[in-house]
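Hello Y.,

Per our agreement to keep a running log of every chain we model this quarter, I'm adding this entry. I've kept the format consistent with earlier entries: sequence first, then predicted structure.
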Amino acid sequence: MSTLGIWDKGFDENFKPLVVPDNRGKAAKVTVEVVRCIVGKAKADKDQRKRIRLKQFTADLKSTAGIDLGAKTVEQILIANDLYKARTRKKRPRFYQSLCRKIPNGLVSLDGSEFIVWLGQEPYRFNVELAVDVVSFAHTAFSIAETETAEQVIKVLDSHRKSWGLPIGVLYDQGSANISAQVQRYLNDLSIEAVPAGPGNPKGNGTDEGAFSQMKKALGTIRLDISSPKALARSVLDALVSVYVYMRNRLRAGGAKVCPAVHMAVPVTDEQRNLERQGLRNHIAAKAASEEDQLKLARLHWVIRHHGLEVAPDALTRAQRSIKAYELEAIRQTEAAFLKAISRKADRRNLAYFFGILRNIQQQRDAETKAQYCRERYNYQVMLDLERQKNEQPPPLSINNVIEMLEKAVTVKARFIKALAIRKAREWTHELMGSCQYLGSLRKKMEDALGNVKHLTIEQKQKAWELFCQFLETNNQESRVTPSL
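Predicted structure for the entry above:
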């Protein structure tokens, strides 16, 4: 009871700690001595055939050696010195773009959801196709049918067009009805931009999903204790959806200042519509496959054709989507390994086995990349060499050192590297000017040395020379300023 009483005094009524320890800036700095101590302890545990568990190992370092480091840093030090195996997550997330539109009736989200009407103990299932404006969240049109079909999609779009006019784009998922030739022909005839939400992107069509969630929460379970034909069930559902849409359009969504019905009536200029159309086209173009993705898809189709793999249409679609998340080099290594595997056992000739090999090879490459990063950062021998170089007397500066920095400043595209190179070139130029009695000789040496550089173009040499002249001028101006006493 005393222990529980102590715990109770440390938290408020919302179970939040009253005093939170602040450990910022208290962690130990990673030095050569720290790495030497960690490596020595890890090797001692290895010699005793002990398995290194990161949390326990980190806690032992803190209690015995006074080294207060995080488990992640300790792991990187052990990996860098080949005392711990690098491990990476199998999941490789994909980038997606959020569709944020600005004008009403610019982008309409279209989706379907199943509703069940109970007549006694008999359930009747219907598909409700709903159109929702992405900006205003206005529920503009709906249709009820037994299944989701292309005719139902076109019916909803026609109803929306009659009530609110033509939208600029329609956002939909990869359902067979949405991507059918009939729907695509309808959109092309009316110059409506088709914006597929795309697989692996659950937030792309979230407007309709949120609308259906609110609708089902408001309606609840529809159950009638009367035996009647199916048409009655459909008419009841139609009336309920109509009431919901009517009321929903008169409630403000989120932090909007006006309700959706008023927002949809706001006039929009042709210039705004053209900008919206261009934005949708840019979004579609950005989601198109890149050149590297095309190479990956080409390798996948070559493997299927060359080995005669039998692939179902849905499996092929998933394979085309998944292959883009892997590296080209991993795919190339997988092809060689897959050829050896099927030569030993013919029953391995399938796409699932190919992707199993690809997943393992990619995982191994990711682990090797992480291990290489850790070695470059925390390897004991590398840190010793760097410390030795830092303690050694630096070599005297020369014209060639300045030219190397100027070369990076005019050739490298990365902004932070370019800025660093310019800063270093300026500092070294000023040091050379301090050790030189006559600037004309320094300028002549730089001009001759820059002219002997063969791998730079004339424009790049001109830019480098202009930078050098600016360094000379700025130093001369600073030297002319007389401090006021």
